[in-house]
Amino acid sequence: xTQDPTIYLTLALSGLAGLGMIxxxxxxxxxxxxxxxxxxxxAHHAPxxxxxxPTAASRIEIADLKERIRKLEAIAAGVDL
Length: 81
Hints:
single chain, mainly alpha, 0% strand
């Protein structure tokens, strides 16, 4: 067997590159987790806001959705409309 230094150098650089990628992915995940926890804390400590009055369009949309739910429930129950 020959002692070829390029094999060892290639293996060392490949291992270092792989370790660097793993560390970069872990750091990215850690930063994402910290951002998520910061958003949770901000949402928990945010002052409560008064909900805005629903617009006519949103009330019509909600009524339409309720009607669709009633129809689907009737279909599920086997009632003929």
